[in-house]
């Protein structure tokens, strides 16, 4: 390319010439420029030379693929000498030839001006090329660093996260190192095998059925899976399974990300067993205390029984708090919503609290709004737990002869609970940490007033779980006021007619024959006494297997079924009964010391008609009996 006015020439040449330029001969400078720029792309190559008898300055700079359009053009041309061009590749040399002396130019000033302008243009071109070359290198360095950290992340992911993939036929196509570590299998032993190789034979059949259905319908699935190790041991995982699709939206298989929860499961099993072992003897103590209170006329002896009963209830409350806190911290705490008669539940609840309050010599004021006379839908067990912990806190920090107030009302779709005392109160600093586990005002608080510091932490957890709000107003020496506002659904109001029907039915003696399945001899005696007091006939079975032998379809009207028993547990026995008698319609009630969060829902889902936790409260038992007999 030649500029006739200035004599400047611009040339492009490359080691990869197009076919129509292959015959062009490169002079010495051009060959030297190609070699120099290949060694150092960042520096231009220049020197004086003589062309056609004239002194010239020849300047050569690198010519790169700086735009994707250029790359696409060069790679798609039919006559291109190279088809794998990439952004940043050196395609050749850009050379500028400037005449040093030109006898054809009459005006030297104009010549100098043009020469300077051209030199500045070339310099700017060089700066431009150098800048973008440096920028490209920085981007490449940043990308390399990102790739380095990504590789580290993926390596860590592979070593710590339990991941697997299976094709649409169920054959394993990928497993992470973490899966191999926890299962004991090598990758070679798992790849190509059907994914159920990792399912434990004891895996819950309903869970397996649900998982299989989701896979068949190409849906996501979340749940807990009991898996088997190569050596026959087991481990538990919380799994998320999702379908994978290709670009054409065709199913290619399923991927699974799992989290090892074996330690949590072992912990839950331990706490569940501990709950059962503690509640079983306490059930007998509280039950016999209540029976003796109805048979003894001596007031002094009755007061002793009140002390035994109230302290046993406190122990039950402590056990429940510890177990529930464990559930909450592990993320396995659940709210079980069901219908309940709020007024009746509150009456039963307050009656149960009377003994504890009288033994502590506190004046108790109970105020309930008429708006509570209704059927509500929520978790009454957790609502009563909130009240129990707030009242226990008030009792603990209110001196003898002090006053404790419980107010319950329903307003704007919210259940409102207020617990007020005129006890020792607390400072602002104490209020800020009182809801943390095991926290109290200071060490002297525990020595002076007792307690573990769990109650208010449990309340705080429950309030958050139930989307409620909790407020506290207190000052040192002026008592405390705790207020809870809980969103709750009202199903129906209860009129006076219903109340009258309830009172009439309570006065009628019950009739029926109950099969009690219970392995503890003391509890057998207690339950028999309670049921016979209601006018019912009773048969006893010592375990689930014996229940199958003693059950008489023509005689029994209801079954009270314990869960943890030797030979055969309650759930297995219930399922065997349904297999033996396909048309069985008898109500089967779970009567168990397993009273942790989620147990009620678990028993109902397994097929039990209802649930009673130990220790058995007479009013709760009566309510169940009236409902099903």
UniProtKB/TrEMBL annotation:
Residues 167-218 form the PAS domain. Keywords: Iron, Kinase, Membrane, Metal-binding, Phosphoprotein, Transferase, Transmembrane, Transmembrane helix, Two-component regulatory system. Residues 273-490 form the Histidine kinase domain. Its EC number is 2.7.13.3. Residues 48-312 form the Cytochrome c domain. PANTHER family: HYBRID SIGNAL TRANSDUCTION HISTIDINE KINASE J. This is histidine kinase. The lineage of its organism: unclassified sequences, metagenomes, ecological metagenomes.
